[in-house]
Amino acid sequence: MLTHRYRIQVVANALSCGQGAVWVDCSYVVCGRRLERVVRTAYTETGTTGSSPTSSPSGKETLRNSTTENNKFVHYACRTLSHFLAALCQPTGTTLPDETAVVIVDSLSALINHAFPKVPEDRSGAKPGTSFRKRRGSAARLQTLQYVIGALQKLAATRNCAVVVLSQCATKMQSENGATLIPSVNASVWDQGISTRIVLFQNWVWRDNVPSTVCFAGVQKREGALLSMAVHNAAAFRVQEVSQCYLVCTFGAARRDSAFVQPAEGGGGHRLGRHARY
């Protein structure tokens, strides 16, 4: 998955610079062995030394937290929205390691959509009271989104770190345009807290009459402002054994969404260059 590769590279970059990183899984556990290999490669390329996050000795692809002198890494697995709120929205002194540069939140939309499913359109023949329950569910969803984005903004500002939220896309049917991909969490109260949005996707290209898959990254929102194009400054890249190769281009169709959470007013924050929600 593109976002899987992206978030691993973001964490590896932070750890290779001697800074801390926090990884929050909201859907499935990251591949610990792969993260360990990428971090070791990042140390080699930057000429730094340090211990990388390690997978469990049982051979399972899970991570163990690493808080050594040169490498500070913390991994959480949040299976419900309540667990996530307790872990990050009200963090304690031990929740985040010192000098944390980036907080990765993977598949947060899965927890939100599970706790507060989107309300379908009203249909004829609905039972009495159904509309009221739907409105109450929609209000609870918006209140939760407002609370979560505000808490992440506060976290980014108080800890001076980048909060990267990766989420899925959803399909929206439109009579005039057909099927359209939109962010899975799509609400104005949520979008207002997003500073930068980058979309990762795959597309087909032809070389010598042979089709091949190419990965793309493009900017949709930058420094709080939506861009005029749906995907701006799209760049192609491929994932190799130890590094990535980039090729600038200007086409593609969105497949996966993520964005940057904007720090609350008065606070600082790191800016990392790829698609995720800060």
UniProtKB/TrEMBL annotation:
<dbReference type="GO" id="GO:0005524">
    <property type="term" value="F:ATP binding"/>
</dbReference>
<dbReference type="InterPro" id="IPR027417">
    <property type="entry name" value="P-loop_NTPase"/>
</dbReference>
<dbReference type="GO" id="GO:0007131">
    <property type="term" value="P:reciprocal meiotic recombination"/>
</dbReference>
<dbReference type="GO" id="GO:0005657">
    <property type="term" value="C:replication fork"/>
</dbReference>
<keyword id="KW-0547">Nucleotide-binding</keyword>
<keyword id="KW-0227">DNA damage</keyword>
<dbReference type="InterPro" id="IPR052093">
    <property type="entry name" value="HR_Repair_Mediator"/>
</dbReference>
<dbReference type="GO" id="GO:0033063">
    <property type="term" value="C:Rad51B-Rad51C-Rad51D-XRCC2 complex"/>
</dbReference>
<keyword id="KW-0539">Nucleus</keyword>
<keyword id="KW-0067">ATP-binding</keyword>
<dbReference type="GO" id="GO:0033065">
    <property type="term" value="C:Rad51C-XRCC3 complex"/>
</dbReference>
<dbReference type="GO" id="GO:0008821">
    <property type="term" value="F:crossover junction DNA endonuclease activity"/>
</dbReference>
<protein>
    <submittedName>
        <fullName>Uncharacterized protein</fullName>
    </submittedName>
</protein>
<dbReference type="GO" id="GO:0000400">
    <property type="term" value="F:four-way junction DNA binding"/>
</dbReference>
<keyword id="KW-0234">DNA repair</keyword>
<dbReference type="GO" id="GO:0000707">
    <property type="term" value="P:meiotic DNA recombinase assembly"/>
</dbReference>
<feature type="compositionally biased region" description="Low complexity">
    <location>
        <begin position="45"/>
        <end position="60"/>
    </location>
</feature>
<feature type="region of interest" description="Disordered">
    <location>
        <begin position="45"/>
        <end position="66"/>
    </location>
</feature>
